[in-house]
Specification:
Number of strands: 6
Number of helices: 2
Strand order of the largest sheet: 1-2-3-4-5-6
CATH topology: Alpha-D-Glucose-1,6-Bisphosphate, Chain A, domain 4
Helix content: 10-25%
Largest sheet: 6 strands, antiparallel
Shape: globular
Oligomer: single chain
CATH class: Alpha Beta
Strand content: over 45%
Structural class: alpha+beta
Order of helices and strands: HEEEEEEH
């Protein structure tokens, strides 16, 4: 994902920049993102490495920042001969914050749903 689009997908994002690599040519990059916190959640500074397999997979894992653990992937599966795409998102996150786990899980569930809705909206509005 190009950093200039991050705020369209992740509305809590306030900054994104590529620190290393070039996903367009080398198949990987290291990014730094900052997402603003809320009432219980602090602002999160995150650095992660992503490895790209074009049109099918993006794997990411923590490379620095505030989170204790972050790893996961975006899998893309073509549907109906490429007429559509199924997006499967898997993410494991652990943070050192003093908030009940259930509250964090509920927040992640809601935020993930928003990101997927935003991704759908952006992909449907993109020129073909």
């Amino acid at each position: 994902m190009n950093c200039r689009y991050i705020r369209r997908l992740i509305t809590s994002a306030v900054d994104c920049r590529i620190l290393q690599g070039d996903a367009g040519r080398s198949g990987w990059d290291v990014r730094e993102t900052v997402t603003k916190g809320g009432f219980f959640i602090p602002t999160i500074h995150n650095i992660y490495r992503s490895d790209y397999q074009p049109y099918s997979l993006i794997r990411f894992r923590k490379a620095g920042g505030d989170l204790r653990v972050e790893e996961g992937e975006w899998r893309l599966e073509a549907l109906d001969g490429g007429a559509g795409t199924r997006v499967i998102y898997v993410n494991l996150v652990a943070a050192n914050i003093l908030v009940p786990g259930g509250l964090v899980r509920e927040g992640m569930r809601k935020d993930t749903a928003k990101v997927l809705v935003n991704l759908r909206r952006e992909s449907l509005s993109a020129p073909r």
